[in-house]
Amino acid sequence: MGQPRTSTRRPRPAVGTALAAALVVVASGCGLTGGSASADRLQLEPISVSSPQLRDGAALPSDYSCKGSAGNPPLRWSGVPNGTKSVAIVVDNNSRTGGEVNWVVFDIDPRTNELADDSVPVGAVEGSTTSGKTGYSPPCRDQENYRFTVYALNDQVDLPKGASLEKTLKSIASKTIAWGRLTTTHIE
């Protein structure tokens, strides 16, 4: 297991639809949805993200890709600030050829600090992915970086299961108060 690491890098800018803009906002961890930002919103607290099966900067094990059948990998996080009302997880690739969201889980109880293999925490809700599927959509692009980002939110997302990706990402972005990320560099 690698050392927990929180990235403060900003992703490459995306162009295109409103969905791409919402993805950039959420994936960057900034939690801003247009307009001017207050200084305190720009200084988001870090969350440490780790996994017993993934290492930051290493390959994504093929079991967690479309080549395998393990479902989502396990994740652990710490450093969720006081006042957090819910947690969300977004798995994406932020590719130069077009970002892809492989999983969105939200309204996770803020006392939860880990996620087991192929599971969703009790009471959490899964939104739609780029493919329109609800649930974990295993990554398939071998040479892409895959980002597992955990967001602390100041409120519930409060959308139904299978909610549109655009609505879900915008809601997560508008409520983000802290975030952390583990990034894999390609699929083994």
Overview of this protein structure:
Pfam families: PBP. It is a single chain. With 188 residues, the protein is of the alpha+beta class. The protein has one domain: PEBP-like (Phosphatidylethanolamine-binding Protein), CATH 3.90.280. Helices cover 14% and strands 24% of the residues. It is built from 3 helices and 9 strands; from the N terminus they run ααββββββββαβ. A hairpin with an 8-residue loop joins strand 4 and strand 5 (101-108).
Keywords, please?
188 residues; alpha+beta; Phosphatidylethanolamine-binding Protein; 6-stranded mixed β-sheet; 9 strands; 14% helix; disordered N terminus; YbhB_YbcL/LppC-like; YbhB/YbcL family Raf kinase inhibitor-like protein; PEBP-like_sf; PEBP
